[in-house]
Specification:
The chain is α+β, with helices and mostly antiparallel strands. The protein has four helices and seven strands. The model has no long low-confidence stretch (mean pLDDT about 85). Strands 3, 4, 5, 6 and 7 form a five-stranded mixed beta sheet that branches. The chain has a two-stranded antiparallel sheet with strand order 1-2. Helix content is about 45%, strand content about 30%. It comes from uncultured Acetobacteraceae bacterium.
Amino acid sequence: MFKDRRALLALGGALGLSGCGFRPLYAPITAEDGSTADIRDDLAAVRVGNVPERSGQLLRRDLQRRFEGVRLGVPARYTLQVAVTYAAEPLGYRRDGTITRLRYTASGIWSLATLSVPPRQIAASAIPSRAIDAFNIPDLQFFAADSARDAMEGRLVDQLAEEIFRRVAMELRREREQRAG
């Protein structure tokens, strides 16, 4: 009885998603002439520009792995420029006023353009991508504090890279669908 009910609920969910226009991000795009295109080729053709500072280079490396790891050996057709800013906010204090916990907010804006001459802008972030994380500052344990900050920075960069990658993928899919007509 429960298996039949689960199957019916799964079928209802699938029908509901198809009725609202849901399409998987990586599904092939079918043009009017019947040809299909794959968004993964476009993602692999994105090259990430330099991002200043250490955390920017970590973000660039993470983005490169995400884009180029989709398909290997695809020639570059797009360039992605990313700018990152960080803000820190103290959350916890000891009785003597020293900080015991910090929250960091990383904000990233991006712009995607073709490598053609002149470059044509494909998309840009209207709203900055954000990632928030925090870490504790242990009392008189400087190595542990540095280690906690480095781990937090890695998590922030990973969250920001995933958000930017997903938004760029959606914009490339939208552009590919418009070209397919």
